[in-house]
Amino acid sequence: xxxxxxxxxxxxxxxxxxxxxxxxxxxxxxxxxxxxxxxxxxxxxxxxxxxxxxxxxxxxxxxxxxxxxxxxxxxxxxxxxxxxxxxxxxxxxxxxxxxxxxxxxxxxxxxxxxxxxxxxxxxxxxxxxxxxxxxxxxxxxxxxxxxxxxxxxxxxxxxxxxxxxxxxxxxxxxxxxxxxxxxxxxxxxxxxxxxxxxxxxxxxxxx
Length: 207
Description:
This protein is mainly beta.
């Protein structure tokens, strides 16, 4: 399975080429076009309770669509509902966390679940629940605005506005805090921020 992202960053389109028999699962409504012989199946991924948790807590669809290529292979194009970017992550046994609404599609080797963010996210605009993606395979994420990737070395710290954080590796530790004093937090327009500590990678959205 291979993906190419076109028309970045404002109106991105993911063109996914699948080998014979390969499958990709996608958010409801993400399919733009596909080869005529692709088979589509709609189901509650992971069962009723897991799907309910993703929908009610993680901001994703209860049902997901699975597209499977025939013996000849196939192509599918995918795009988010809102104008913005699409970014490809290739997971090799690791885990990443996504903000609500950033999941677009993934290959079958990846597990999708919701994760409790802990009490330290209580005042974050992004809420307490994140999507947890783990396993081996292709992950497509989307954002409002362009996506920018940041790599952090061991012990390196980086600060991101809570509304701009899209994804981060599980190897990163993080805390939610005020950007400065309460006066700057309330009057400066920045609100709360996430301070992440490496090693690992994260992505942020420009809008």
